[in-house]
Amino acid sequence: MPESRTITPVKTAVSIRDLSFAYPDGQVALRDVSLAIGRGEKVALVGPNGAGKSTLLLHLNGILRGRGQVEVLGQPVQDGRLGSVRAQVGFVFQNPDDQLFSPTVFEDVAFGPLYMGLPREEIQGRVGRALEQVGMEAFEDRMPHHLSLGERKRVAIATVLAMDPEILALDEPSLGLDPRARRGLIGLLRELPQTMVVATHDMHLVRDLLPRTVILDHGRVAAEGRTQDILADRKLLEQHGLELP
Q: What are phi and psi of 106, to 5 degrees?
């Protein structure tokens, strides 16, 4: 008699089913997108400009709401659940200046925990841990607008980490960075334990950081699979306006 085995289902961080979205001007950005991302996965969203990458990211915490189903850690992204969903999905915008608006780095990173009504001691602990994770612990009293782009990107990530999310959604995190800052960012993201969904044109970052890749084009999932397999298919990359790293 064969030995019986119990199969444990993979826990899903993000589940998207038949998601479509059009902007008010009629531009269709997503067309029947279905996608599942397991907890702990690091996934790239790649494709040409206008493919729907950023639009898809903005659905993960309900900033945009389309037709279809989006679930985060088993919770539907819908009215009445947005607060708990947004506590679990940390969104890092393409431009760090969209997230940094306080006089000091400490105040920027403390803003989310303060808004949550946490005690002062816990806020200080969260800020310290978040800045340490991104290598910016010595910058608490600095003015964000005096920092380099790479430093501001790290602080923007810290503002999200201070909220202790399970999922990070990052939009073009390496855009505009010089090679040294880019390598530092990849090293930072590699060490973080969170599930990551990264929209990017940076195929070097995809190769070096993200084991799974999803190609979006014209609002649809054109291909998905292991990054090494996607990058080995030159014809597929060319068809969707992508280049080998």
A: -55, -45
Q: Where are the alpha helices (DSSP H) in 89-148?
A: 105-115, 120-133
List CB contacts of 75: < 8 A, sequence separation 6 or more: 81, 84, 85, 88
Give me the phi and psi of 241, to 5 degrees please: 70, 30
How many of the other CB atoms lie within 10 Å of CB of 38?
14
Helices (H), the chain: 53-59, 82-88, 105-115, 120-133, 149-161, 179-191, 203-209, 227-231, 234-239
The pTM assigned to this predicted structure is 0.90
Cα angle at 177 between 138 and 64, to 5 degrees?
95
Each residue's pLDDT tens digit, 87-144 = 899 999 999 999 999 999 999 999 999 988 899 999 999 999 999 999 999 999 999 9
Q: Of 21, 92, 34, 15, which is closest to residue 214 (Cα–Cα)?
A: 34
**Residue 76, both tokens:** 């539907």
Spatial CA neighbour of 44 closest among 224, 242, 234: 224
Q: What is the Cα gyration radius of the chain?
A: 19
Measured in degrees and rounded to the nearest 5, phi and psi for residue 172 equal 50, 60
How many C-beta neighbours within 10 Å does residue 230 have?
23
Contact partners, residue 53, CB within 8 Å, separation at least 6: 45, 46, 47, 171, 199, 200, 216
